[in-house]
Amino acid sequence: MLKGAMKVSILSMRHSLRIDHEYTLVLLCANKPTITLLNDICQELANALNKQVTSANQSHSMEELSSIQSIYQVHTNVVDACLNVQSNRLPEHTIRIMLTSPVFCSEKFSNRDQTTDLRLAELNSDDPTDMLDKNICLQAATEISHSNWFTRFILHHNNTLVVLGRLLNSMLTLFRAVFTYMSNGILLSNEITSNLLDPCEKDPVNVASYLTNKQRSDVTTYAQNIVRLIACEQFHKMFSSDQ
């Protein structure tokens, strides 16, 4: 029924950030994934996780249970053809489990022999009545292809791109935070308590005291525009000569 699971997206690329709260796995199914299969996996996974928690609790004292006990929730999402897994210890984080099969997009999977090709042709003849959305399953297969390519490329380049990716993501996060702070009008106020203070001075000193009111307004407007460009992912406009 199930052939295995693969990490995709940020999990496989190993460059998740603190702002990331959703992680994706892809389950490979022998046949075309159906709603019935999705519900069965949901029930089995919930039982397995709860059984694991119960087994772990038996090795701890009653005093320790209140601080370490975990509760997992597994929900089906038929529209998105996936499962969502959450824990009470990290309620803001979600593990998204997508389903796919070599039957849907066999060219995305390697190591196929003649017997496998015949089996794929046989399975492709008819679709189950409760089959999951084919486009979403194809998307999951594409995620596997992307992750496999990235893994092969990184192994060849000694993790250089992973380090570079983490650096760029961290810089973008810091870049967004600075301009978001400035876009809130921090430079427009003349009150010491509301301004940017010079950390090198013993007494409160506004670092923007030399700016005129017009310059402060222009900087604030520019920061607001930059925040909008970041939100719309129009990074090429941020460094154009028109800005």
From TrEMBL:
InterPro entries: DZF_dom, DZF_dom_C, NT_sf
A GO molecular-function descriptor: single-stranded RNA binding
Domain of life per record: Eukaryota
Gene Ontology cellular component terms for the protein in this record: precatalytic spliceosome
Domain DZF: 1-243
Protein name: DZF domain-containing protein
Organism field: Rotaria magnacalcarata
